[in-house]
Structure formats: C-alpha cells, structure tokens
Amino acid sequence: MIDVQGLTKEYGRLRAVDNLSFRVEPGQVLGFLGPNGAGKTTTMRIVAGFLPATSGRVLVCGHDIETQSVAAKRRIGYLPEGAPSYPEMTPRSFLEFIAEARGIPAAKRRQRLDEVFALLHLERVLEQSIDTLSKGYRRRVGLAQAILHDPEVLLLDEPTDGLDPNQKHEVRELIGRMARDKIIVISTHLLEEVDAVCNRAIIIAHGKILADDTPRGLETRSRFHNAVSVKLATPEHLAAARRAINALSEVASTELDEKTQRLTAFPAPGKLPLAAINALAEKERWHLAELHLESGRMDEVFRSITGGAMA
Amino acid sequence: MSGVLAVFKRELRSYFATPIAYVFIVIFLIASGLCTFYFLGFYESGQADLQAFFYMHPWLYLFLVPALSMRLWAEERKSGSIELLMTLPLEMWQVVVGKFLAAWVFTGIALALTFPIWITVNYLGKPDNGVVFAAYVGSFLMAGAFLAVGACISAATKNQVIAFILSFITCFMLLAVGVQLVQQVMSAWAPQWLVDGLASLSFQTHFDFISKGVIDLRDIVYFALLIGACLYANAIVLQLKKAD
C-alpha cells in the first residue's frame, strides 16, 4: 500500500504540492492526471524517494520513504520522467547494473534478465549503446529497469510519452498484465491512457487534488454524459428536427456543430433522452445518418475541473 | 558493500566505454614523459632516480584530475540519471564511495601505466626502489585527494565547465600554499604560524615528504582525512541539491 499523508513540497515561495493525501491499494492502477506544472512529477519524485518533502509523509508498504528509505525503495520500481539511463552503456550492461544494485541474487539474475528482455522485446538491441536507440526503445529500457525486481509498487512517470501508437498499446497491455497484484501509479496528461489502463484517476492542479474517482465516474461528470448526438441524412430538415428535440422534456438544450452538422442533445437532470429521440425520429420519419449515445468526454471533464484552477 | 561494488563496476566500465579513458591515459603518459625527459633533464641529471618524474605530478594532476572529476556528478545531474541512481535501494554513502573509488582506481591505472619509466631507470642504474615505491603510493594518494575535492565540487553544479574551473582553482590553492616560493612571498606580510599552517594543509608538502621515501603515518592520515571529509561534504551537497 502507498499511504501519502499531508504531503507538501515548497520550492522557495512556490508551493508545488499542497497538502496532498491519498492511499493506493494493491490491484489499483492509479492515473495521476493534471496539466503541465500541476505537481505530478514532484509528487512522483517524493514518493519514489528522490526528493525530500517539505512536510507530510509517505509510507510505501509500511516503510517511511525518508527514514527507512532503503527498505521502501526495494519495493518500488520507478520510471523517472524522460526515462533517463546511461547513454554510453548497452541495454544489457545497464540492466545488469540495475540487477546488481537491486541485489537480485547472481544465480537468478541471468534468468530474470532474459525474462524482462523478452517481455519488452529488447533482444534485438541488447548490444547497441543506448544513445543510438530510438525513443521507443529507450523508454522500454527504462520500463525494463523499473520492473526488473518484480516490485510491489510501480511508479511510472509518463510511461508512453514519445511512443508510437503500436508501442503505446504494447506498454499499456504490459501494465494491464502486471496490474492484478501490484500497486501501479501512472502520471500522464494523456486522457486516453487513463481510460485504457487505469481503474482510478486523481486529477490534480496546483498541487491539490481536484477529483478522485474511477474513469467511468469522471465521465459521468461530463455534460456529455448520456447526451445524444444526431446527424440527419437530409440536412434541410435539421432546423425543424432541432426544434422538435428541444421541445422534448428529457432534453435540456441542444448544440449544433456547424462543421460536421452534428446535433447534440444534452439531457435534462436525471433523464435519458435517447429513447425519446429515437421514437421522435421514427414518428417524424427522419433519415438518420448517425444516432449516437455519448458516454461522457474525459477531456471535457478534465478541462472543466482544471480550467478554473488554471486561470 | 555489494552496492558500492555495483556502482564502482558500472562507473569504471563507463570510463572505458567512452574516449575519456583513452584520452586521459594517453595525455597523462605523454605529459609525464615530456616533463621528465625534456624539461627536467632526466638524463642530464645523471642520477638513477625518479625525482624529476614525480616532481611534476602535482602539476599534472592539477590539470588532468579536474577534467576527470568534473563529470562525476555534473553529468548525472544533466542527463537525469541521478534520479535513477538515487532511487535505487542504496545508501547515499555507497553511491558516493562507489563513484569515487572508480575514478580513483582509474587514475591508479593511468599511474601504473607509467611503469616503463621505472623499468628504464632500473636498466640505466641502481635506483632505491623503496623510494620509488613510496613516491608511487604518495602520488596515488594525492590523486585521490584531488579527485575527492573535484567530486565534491562537481556535486554542486550541473555545469561541467564550472565544475572544472572551481576544482582547478581550489586544487591550485591547495598546492600553491605548499610551494616554497609562495611561502616566501607570503611570509613578507603574513605571520609565520599562518604560513606554516597553510603549508601543512597543502598536498605539495605531504607529497614531498612521501616522495622522498618517508612514508609517515601523518601524511597518510592527512590524505585519508582530506578524502574522507570531501566525500562526506559530497554526500551532504548531493542531499541538499539533488534535483536542482
């Protein structure tokens, strides 16, 4: 378990992290979301034991990261922002160093290294120096370093930054596979990532927690949640259709996207307008090109939650 | 201890994975050779000893060791690998000592590669090999002291050029206060106790004693204390400014 209690970090007069408290249990994949400069990386660095906190404390599996740092760090696998490593080394020698520094017994080292090489598809580049590798490979070397000792806690700071869509998918699969019995904290500003791998999301801005929910739960906060978008095959009927939809008791308001000619109907509080709109369309014999139930838009929630804080 | 060893091995390997090692060794060998044979008249002196060779060591180290030590921490800081290193389950002292030992052993390798000059002098005459051995030990200890000063300064900055210049100046002062010429100039205005006090803090003074063949415990303790104090300061500086 990670237990963060009243964590505050000040740089001079700037308060980067402001009295942050949360707990993460095994099996949780926590997405740490926030605009750039929100304090995500600072928080990760404190939890990983790189930076000392100004006040508050962090317990990792019961060990205080400051007073019992070695015991706590043993349980953590950490991918720092930008996946730094030693550019002149090869992935093999770099990971051998990590294995040795992490105290993986020499007898098991060989086997564990081979497992991790295979897991992250590093076999092809093992003898090449890291500075000649592509960004994607470098990131994977960083991930390999983090999971090498099979830690109970994984802290990944922007694990898919700079990867192409295939690589992103692969890394997310990997995280998904490891998720069952581990505690995983991912900091990211990619909302799709939270959707894809996390079962809990914390949104922070200015070092404060603004929302702590499941990705689903966050989506229900969106005004798009349960909204219905409609596109007519016959655009000349659009104005009439809009009036009719607006008149429905289930609909609070409608919005028209001029570019796509897509009409979005927002639900009245507690109502589900989909059935009513569908019935209306049948009755009026509209030719629908699209009828679509919105589940809620994460980016919109994110903007509305952090928007006030950014001003 | 295994933590120190892991850091030590990685670091030492890294020297040889980059051109740093080869450039350093070649320049050290050429410069020490040139000084000995060309400027200080190894042959002309007609004596079978290595005084001329060791005489130049403090001044060679003054240029070369800060070039080696400047990257010790400044580079880790710049590339961000310090974050990786400091989140491994290692104590701070293990990392500091491991890195220092790697750099020290590396200068030891460069120093050991000057062995042809020792063979030459044995071929030409009958030197006192005890004195030669003592001077090698003294030179190695002095290199360690230069390195420890440089490592501590490197920990304070991200910029390798600044690390080089500050290490150079600090080491230069630590050398100069032990040079007779400087002492004479200083005694014109400074009280004698200050001149002597500063001289006793100088690398030069202690190295001079050892290189004459006198391995005095006090000189060894001096170098050991200096290295220890610098490494301790190194750890504190890192703790304070890890992320800057």
Outline the secondary-structure elements.
The complex is a heterodimer of chains A (about 300) and B (about 240).
Chain A: E1 2-11, E2 14-24, E3 29-33, H1 40-47, E4 55-60, E5 63-64, H2 69-74, E6 76-79, H3 91-101, H4 106-119, H5 135-147, E7 153-157, H6 165-178, E8 183-188, H7 191-197, E9 200-205, E10 208-213, H8 215-220, E11 228-232, H9 238-247, E12 251-257, E13 262-267, H10 274-284, E14 288-293, H11 298-310
Parallel strand pairs in A: 3-8, 3-9, 6-7, 7-8
Antiparallel strand pairs in A: 1-2, 1-4, 4-5, 9-10, 11-13, 11-14, 12-13
Chain B: H1 2-17, H2 20-39, H3 51-55, H4 57-69, H5 71-79, H6 81-86, H7 92-112, H8 115-124, H9 129-155, H10 160-176, H11 180-187, H12 192-200, H13 203-211, H14 217-241
Helix pairs in contact in B: 1-7, 2-4, 2-7, 4-9, 4-10, 7-9, 7-14, 9-10, 9-13, 9-14, 13-14
Polypeptide structure, described:
The complex is a heterodimer of chains A (311) and B (244). With 311 residues, chain A is α/β, with parallel strands linked by helices. Chain A folds into two domains: 218 residues, 3-Layer(aba) Sandwich (Rossmann fold), CATH 3.40.50; 67 residues, Alpha-Beta Plaits (2-Layer Sandwich), CATH 3.30.70. Chain A has eleven helices and 14 strands. The longest helix of chain A is centred in the middle third of the chain and has 14 residues. The model of chain A has no long low-confidence stretch (mean pLDDT 89). Chain B is an all-alpha fold and 244 residues long. Chain B has one domain. Chain B is globular and about 55 Å long. The interface between A and B is medium-sized, with 29 and 24 residues.
